[in-house]
């Protein structure tokens, strides 16, 4: 019997910092994302985990309002690049 | 609330089994409460209140019976039908009353789906239909949603393709979004449906009694409480020649379009209110449109990080919706309520399902911190100005509470 594969790294192995907002209701994940992005240098990314039903819509809307880019959206994982 | 006392119970201080409710000291009410939720239910129009009272005295009999009093009730019912037919410019025998707008919507979809079952089961609809229509589409057919743009307006190209596909039983389009106010291209959508040989059902609940509804539809529904009639009265209009099958027993009650006896005094009041609303519509349109313009401009200018959504021009006269970044919709609604403003919200936290409004989602606009104001004939300029004076402070306080400042 082979050993089970190791669990995937929470950052997907690509070094992008992860913000765990699972279980938080909107607008809390968006507030956390805004704080995290404010601390990033331009061009850097952050990955947010958010399973609120409004998260997919509101994270995309926030990116548009703030001029940042949603580079990947695979709920509950969303990757945002500071532009 | 009656509460059993338990805290601090001891022999020296016997706790009563229950305590009288303590009335909260009244908050200083320097303001008059303002009701801004007409798109849910408008205040009863004065003529509806009069008609309701008169009909309770004179029109409570079953109009299907044969004695004198019942014939008087039947006269009131047929007079109401005639008033509605005149406002809508349709025939008397095309107008039916329903127990409410939701039943009317369900009956409209069910009847068309049954009448067109041999053609197919697909129900083409815009992504921004009222939830009653979405539920009806899923219950009676196979829903085929058509997307909208950022203003919430139907994508006509996709609509044309969807209605022309094989197997479409009916197409459903809301006349104007009850959530964001954007008018839908009903005439163009109706032409596309007609070219495809598909009957169009228009949910005109948000428009009727306020703005003209273009023709070309086969079935139309509305809800009396939206135009100043009483709650508990719906309207269903089925154009002659429509392949529409009544879902209820074809007894003497509305020819199978209503599930049993109607609330006749409500129907009489609804018809009186519709006639009055239609007569006042042009003047009210101008007055409310100016107030909404003022809200749109002031909110955008004085509440930072807020998006005013929906079409700024091609819209209902009385509806305005905006979303405030970093604000919890329920908290905003309740904070406004404490300041005497009754508004509704499309934010997820205000819905029993905890899902954001499907309309805001379909538009791709921010759904949290959402507020909808819908004005009516009793709305005053002073009420709107007081709202505009208070809303920036209410939003700022909620953001400060959430630690969402300077983001």
UniProtKB/TrEMBL annotation, chain A:
Query: Which CDD domains does this entry report, sorted A to Z?
Result: SirA_YedF_YeeD (cd00291)
**UniProt-listed Gene3D superfamilies:** TusA-like domain
Query: Where does the UPF0033 domain start and stop, copy by copy?
Result: 19-43
Organism source for this protein?
Pilimelia terevasa
Q: Which PANTHER family match?
A: SULFUR CARRIER PROTEIN TUSA, SULFUR CARRIER PROTEIN YEDF-RELATED
Name of the molecule in the record: UPF0033 domain-containing protein
Q: What family is reported?
A: Belongs to the sulfur carrier protein TusA family.
